[in-house]
Amino acid sequence: MKIALFTIFTCVVLIAVMVAVAYVCNRLNIGTRTTAQQAPLPLTPQDWEVYLAYLQALMECVANNHNTCGLCRPGDLPQHMAPGLSGIIRKGGTMLYTARCKEMMTEEGLQKAADTCKYLGIDGLICCGGDGTFRGAQALSRKGVPCIGVPGTIDNDIVCTDYTIGFDTACNTAIECIDKLRDTMQSHERCSVVEVMGRRAGHLALHVGCAVGATASCLPERKLNFDTDIVEKMRVGRIKGRNHHIIIVAEGYGSAQEVADHIHEATGIDTRVTILGHIQRGGSPSAQDRVMATRMGYAAVRALMEGKTNRVVVFDNNQVTDLDIEEGLSRDKDLNQCLFEAQQTVAI
Ligand code: F6P
How far is the CA of 162 from the centre of ligand 1 (A)? Predict the structure, then answer.
């Protein structure tokens, strides 16, 4: 059986999925597929490091008698042996050279991908990403290419799963940065307004806000009353001896600068804005992400081997399981209300 890894979106720990997949597929033929292997050259030194690690992964497959291939550049296949895969689990980024691919959103692009799978004898695809990736997987399944989705995004906004690979690493990165910011805010008695990623969802902002003891987290899913939920909390905090404040703003909420200006006008407190940006999408994966990626990658390969297609691996009720993509995409997901209430109430 020939299985390929495929992704439209980037995510922190695809590599861990890849490792899991490669190990599980011990005697299978493994292919790797990414929409972004056409990454612009020349590559940066860091890109090269990642690319070499990617090649090592392929070589490991060769070493274990796996038949490897890349869909986009089959000519690049490594011809010699290399060290094992174990080292790459600690790497961030996407050695698959992933990126959003507009072509995959067209009928022609999908047909091209399906034809390429056929041409290369790929029997199944593991599609890591979010809703867009799963819709692509669904469309490819309809074209006869067995596909299993694995949820991967730092936003944790995929409706059918409680967890998406990359989320924990992004949280930890943001927390580490904010802990550092806090030192200056404390020394100068300032307020730090920090924008975190998450696209249209506030899961990342809520978790980060809770973990850093933010005075408030501004989330797209919940309307805050600026006077009572922010200004009044800052005033009471000040009376109780709190000399600095951290306010988290989800990127989907609105402008962090506007929030900061507003706070400054209302309180007179010296305020600074930090936008963490893409730093949240890189770095060595956390233990939780490595373990979840391994579990989900394993489940995805098992599903393909059982002849399943058009399924997505999910983390539901503390279990890794799989469900129909259509059903998965039609579910609802809201913020964790208990966590939201706790965060709004407790500020350290
Ligand atoms: O979906 C992951 C994510 O990092 C979002 O949190 C963010 O809005 C977006 O991707 C950023 O995308 P880009 O790298 O294209 O700016």
Answer: 20
